[in-house]
Amino acid sequence: MMGVSHAIMSFALVYGVTGKAVPASLASAGALFPDWIERVVYGKKWMKHHRKWSHWFVPYLGLAWWISRHMEGVPLSSILKKLEGTLYLSLDAPTAKMALGFVSFWLLVGCLLHVLEDAFFGPVPVFIPWRKHRLVFQLFKTGGMAESVIVRLALVGAVALRYVDSTRLIAG
Ligand SMILES: [Zn+2]
Fold first, then answer.
1. Is 123 helix (H, G, I), strand (E, B) or coil?
2. For residue 48, what pLDDT is reported?
3. Residue 84 CA, ligand 1 centroid: distance in Å
4. Fewest CB within 10 angstroms: 41, 131, 166, 172, which?
5. 32 Cα–ligand 1 center, Å
6. Is the entire prediction scored with pTM above 0.70?
7. Domain ranges of the chain
């Protein structure tokens, strides 16, 4: 998947689930990291090392879990049920540490979504960072027409879902 598609898709997924634009924008920026770091480390030869250690979900998930535990006192899985917690603060975080935790958490979510999205476009590492596995039958080709259509549909879908949700709240 191309960088811009990762950014749009990750925004759409986080916005669709949380309805919050700030976490969604941070996840969108974080989604650029796994490919960006490959380019920084390997320069022009980055394609030879594509989707290896930088696409291993374990460090991202571990850090996200650690931050969420530290900030919320709850494991990762309960965060989605706890939509009003500290991790959903926008820019009015009470302390610098909280703000840093908030920003890091959503950037990491973006990295994780990048890896998940890439799994539909080819093999990614699972158990060890230097060995790639095909998790999902490869559905799409990177840079293809389907890719740009799907990410835009996801974005429209997320915004529509949130709009319907908010009007229902007002009506109810
Ligand atoms: Zn990638």
1. coil
2. 86
3. 31
4. 172
5. 8
6. yes
7. 3-171
